Amino acid sequence: MKISLALLVACVAFVFSATFTVAQENSPPNQFAKLADLLAEAERHNPQIQAARSAWRAAAKVPSQVSTLPDPVVSVQQFSVGSPRFFAGYTNSDFAYFGLGFSQDFPYPGKLRLRGQAAQSGANALEEKWRYERRRISAEIKVIYFQLAYEQQALAILKRDGSLLAQMETIAEARYRTGQVSEQDVLQAQLEQTDLVRERAVEEEKLAQQEANLKALLNRPPDSPDIVAGKLTQTPFSLTFAELAAQIRSGDPAVLAEQAETKKQAAEVQLAHKDFYPDFNVQWMWQRTDPTQYRAYYMLTFSATIPIYRRRRQDPELAEAKELRAQSQHAYDAQVQQAYAELRTEYVRATTAERLLAIYKQGLIPQSAATFQAGLAAYQSGREDFQTLLSAFVDELRLESEYWRSLADHEIALVGIEELTGVALH
Predict the structure, then answer these.
(1) Among 229, 243, 244, 305, which residue is least crowded by beta carbons within 10 Å?
(2) Which runs of consecutive H residues, i.e. helices, occur in 229-313?
């Protein structure tokens, strides 16, 4: 009996000395994937980021195209007299000629500038969408990384629990053989062992899913080596909601993209007003007949479009531009309000998790440890049954798992705040 009690005391000492540790036995610390390295890898290889960047770079080439005058037109003319043959009558008729011409279209003043402004605003919107895509992918990687760290921690706890329960089962068997307890203690320990096997299978499946998602974001082959996250640690957080909310309009790429789209539509409205005015064309022509007999002709032509179909073209165009401007403004306002709401949610999650972590560390976990120790003493003296002791043991381990879950939730909430405000917290 003394040996059994000594073994039980050793188990308990092992439990509390191992509390809040990460048992990643197969991966030495130098093999842990650093979050910064994963983010840099995604920046280089993630196809969604690359696609958004290419779209922005393509759009950045548009403003100079649409704000430049149309290409000039060079024309060559040959006018024959008396016959369809080339140069027929060139030497004996002052109507026959060979001519060179040049013409240039000129949009109404201000149109090219407005087209350039609209295109630049469109490019700015795509640039912000690229930044949004970068931040979104980075946030996804961080969330998965912290979830991966939690799953690894949960598996470590379950593995340790299985070892401890096996030792407790040995103690129960020893006491059963000496007639101090019933067979139910042994069976209960075995049942708990089987349940831990089930929980480990569930956690291993979650771990595999998180690794697969992370590899996809990094554009790694699915059969590439496993990714091992580092230990979860609590990130200090002291910013107020008001300080964070002040960063929404200038720090959220989704909001900035809608803002750029609004500027683009405002330029489109001004451009639609300009379409009520004519565009112009200037043409110059030099005509040459036989220089020994006739003088050359020089012809300058100025023409303008006449926008006479206003009710069918310009009026609807202007109305459309105004509606699109209103739509973009409403979309911008909606995006801002959505960002505020999401920020409030993430802020509450972060602050709530902080309070829970303090409760776990300062109250629940020490109390559960004391309860287990008291139950151990009572079990040793025969004043408490194995079921009660096992229940206290499971409660202590459950609270430890909940502590790590709250820590992961805290870090994930900070990721959401980073994504919305651009404030670096990790």
Answers:
(1) 243
(2) 241-245, 248-251, 253-274
